[in-house]
Each structure stands twice: as structure tokens, then as C-alpha cells.
Amino acid sequence: MAKVPQISDAEWEVMKLVWGRGPLVAADVVEALAAQNHWSPRTVKTLLNRLVKKGALGYEVAGRHYVYRARVTRDACVRRASSSFLSRVFNGNAAPALAHFLEHEDLSAEEIEQLRRILDGAREQEGRP
Q1: In sequence order, what are the beta bridge partners of 116?
Q2: 55 with 2: CB under 8 angstroms?
Q3: For the purposes of burial, counting CB atoms within 10 Å of the CB of 43, is it exposed (0-12), middle (13-18) or buried (19 or more)?
Q4: Each residue's pLDDT tens digit, 91-129
């Protein structure tokens, strides 16, 4: 996998489409994002080119078509964005960030239970009861 670049909000929209639907011909990316976000074909092509330059997307030429593929995983990009967010907003500390979200977001019982399992797993890894 390629080095994980920092990507903009608009670039995230392109990446989500490519991650979700696999290798895509440029025309399919343009069509989907033009319908979804009301972006012009030129805007979408600019975003594709930026993502190729950043190494997030790769492409191959198949006849008269450019076929785009993700060169970085969604998980790697989420980790990069999360780390950047934590550094900028919470001085790199996850606990205050988690506390903020828990205090200000409405969580379902299922989401709370999922968080408990994650925290219990982290406690077990540190060897604490």
C-alpha cells in the first residue's frame, strides 16, 4: 500500500465511492458524484487527479478509459484523519476526545455496549481486571 496522504472533505467523497464500488471508470465516478453532490465533470476530474498525485488513487488505461483503484485502504485513511484531528483539537489525547463525544452525542444502547467491549478489551491488554 502507498503512503497514506491527508485528503480533503471533497476528496473523501471520491475515495468513499472508489472504496465502496471497486475499480471505477472515470465516467462512472463523474456520473455518481455529479448526481450526488451536483459537481461538474471538471470538478470531479480535478479531484481524481489530485488523489492520483497524492498517491491515494492509481489508474490504468483500458482502451479509451481510465480505470481508478484505491492505493490506500479506508482504514488507513481513517487512522490518519483521526490522528490529525486528535492532534489539532485535543493535543493528541484520545481520552478527552472520547469524553467529549460521550457527553455531547446521543448514543444508542448498542453503541454504548460496543464502547464497553472496546474499553474492556483495552483494559485486558494492559493486564488489569
Answers
A1: none
A2: yes
A3: middle
A4: 989 889 989 988 999 989 999 999 899 988 887 777 766
3-state SS, the chain, equals CCCCCCCCHHHHHHHHHHHHHCCEEHHHHHHHHHHHHCCCHHHHHHHHHHHHHHCCEEEEEECCEEEEEECCCHHHHHHHHHHHHHHHHHCCCHHHHHHHHHHHCCCCHHHHHHHHHHHHHHHHHCCCC
- Could you tell me the pTM of the whole model? 0.80
List the grid coordinates of 82: 483521526
Residue 92 backbone dihedrals phi, psi, to 5 degrees:
80, 5
| Length in residues, the chain | 129
Residue where the block lists cell 490504468: 60
